[in-house]
Amino acid sequence: MTVSTTAAPEFRVPAAMQWRALSGRTVRAALREGDLPFGFLAPMIFFLCFYVPLRHSMEAGGTRYAQYLLPVIVVQAMFFTAMSAGDRAARDTFSGMGTRLRSMPVRPWLPLAARMSANLLRAVAGIAGAVVIGSVFGFRFHDAPSAVVFLLLALGFGAAIAIGADALGVATGKPEIGASALLAPQLLLIMMSTGFVPAQAFPAWIQPFVRNQPVSQAAAALRDLSEGNFTAALAVSLVWIAGLIVMFTAVSVRVERRRK
Predict the structure, then answer these.
(1) Most exposed: 30, 87, 89, 259, by fewest CB within 10 Å?
(2) How far apart are CA 20 and CA 9, in angstroms?
(3) How far apart are CA 257 and CA 260, in angstroms?
(4) Residue 51, SS3?
C-alpha cells in the first residue's frame, strides 16, 4: 500500500534573491508607467496650488507659510503612495500574478515585501519632491538629526497606510477600486486637518476632530521636527502609526489566508 504525502515547498532560492527579483519587477513597472516621476512631481503641484492663494493671508499673521504648509504636502504624498499601492496590488491580483506566485516555491511574505519596497521608493520620491519645492519657497530643516526623524516619521506614516491600501487591493482584485476607494477618506482627512490652516479657522463644533485626527497629528509632528523640536505630537503620531501598522498587517494576513 502506497501512502501519498504532500511535501512542503522547498525554498532553494535565497529569500534575498527572490525579494530582489520581485522588487525589481515592481520598480521597473513603476518607472515604465510613470508612477515614480508622478510621485515626485505631484507634491510640487499641490504645494503651489495651496501656497499661492493662502500665502498672503497666513503670512499676514507672521507665519512662514512654506514652513507651515510643507508637512501636510508630505502627508498627502504618502496618501498618494497608498493609492498607488492599492492600485498595484489590485492589478497583481486581477492579472493572476498572486495566484502564480502561490503555486511557486516563493515565501508567502515576499510578494507583499516586494510591493512595499516599491511603495517606500515612491514615498521617498514624494518626500523629495515636496522638500525640493518647499525649499524653493523658504522651507528649511533646523538640523540634520531632526531632518532624519522627519523622513523616518513620514515613511512610517506612508508604510502604515500603504499596507492597508495593499490589503484592500488584494481583497478586491479590481484596479478601479484599489485606488479610488481611498480618494474620499484622503480628501476628508487632509482638508479637515490643521495642515493648511490652524484649527481655529474651523467651526468650533468640528475643531476637536480637526486637532486630533491622524493627519493633523502627523503634520504637527513633522512641522515641529522641521523646527528642531521633539514634541508630544511626535509621540501621538508614533502611536497612530504603530496602531495602523498592526491593524492593517493583521488585515493583510487575513486577506492572504482567505485567498489560499
Answers:
(1) 259
(2) 20
(3) 5
(4) helix
The model carries a pTM of 0.87
d(CA 194, CA 223): 11
Residue 4, C-alpha cell as written in the block: 501519498
CB 219 within 8 A of CB 72: yes
Could you tell me the residue ranges of all domains in the chain? 64-194+204-259
Residue 184, SS3 per DSSP: helix
